[in-house]
Amino acid sequence: MAFELPDLPYAYDALGPYMSAETLEFHHDKHHMAYVSKGNELAEAAGMADKSLDEIMKASFGSNAPLFNNAGQHFNHIHFWKWMKPNGGGTSLPGALQSAIDSDLGGYDKMRADFIAAGVGQFGSGWAWIAVKDGKLEIMKTPNGENPVVHGATPILGCDVWEHSYYIDYRNARPKYLEAFIDSMVNWDYVAELFEATR
Ligand SMILES: [Fe+2]
Predict the structure, then answer these.
(1) pTM tops 0.85, yes or no
(2) Residues 6+ apart with CB under 8 A from 116
(3) What CATH class is the domain 21-82?
(4) Which residues are found with C-beta within 5 Å of the ion, ligand 1?
(5) pLDDT tens-digit profile of 175-185?
(6) How many Å lie between the centroid of ligand 1 and the Cα of residue 21?
(7) CATH number of 95-197
(8) Which of 8, 17, 36, 189 is deepest in the core (most CB within 10 A)?
(9) pLDDT tens-digit map of 17-71
């Protein structure tokens, strides 16, 4: 099943002033597109063109790094666009998700601080996550195109901390970008939808 670039679920300028149209144009049209094109080329070369994205990620992890990173990044970005929305963020979360954050992650404030710390602490390119593993929420971080799926967990929120996601708008201030992501961009309804699907 060939990878395809999904449309952004909002206009390029919809996340301003927290994420600019210029960032989204480069990030979606150039970077995500490159993962799609390169991923298809490498999947074909590996004889996996007819496999699903999940199957390709799991089969290539640890054995074919170029294919894995492109497939992983395709998966990560498909969700990343949906993990944000105009007028996102806020501390009023859907009930069951809030309860799980309270019981597993020590409440909203601790979750926010730990998620930001995971993103800041990811040396070089990678992702910060909230994932469900063995029925519990966990904060995780991974390098490059890696994600919780290959660690037996289901990501319900992820923030791209590659410089291509924030350098135009925040320069080297990764913590400011992570704060803006949590406070003003997260689509908690989509996070809750993914969370519900794990229960
Ligand atoms: Fe990215």
Answers:
(1) yes
(2) 128, 175, 178, 179, 182
(3) mainly alpha
(4) 160, 162
(5) 999 999 999 99
(6) 14
(7) 3.55.40.20
(8) 36
(9) 999 999 999 999 999 999 999 999 999 999 999 999 999 999 999 999 999 999 9
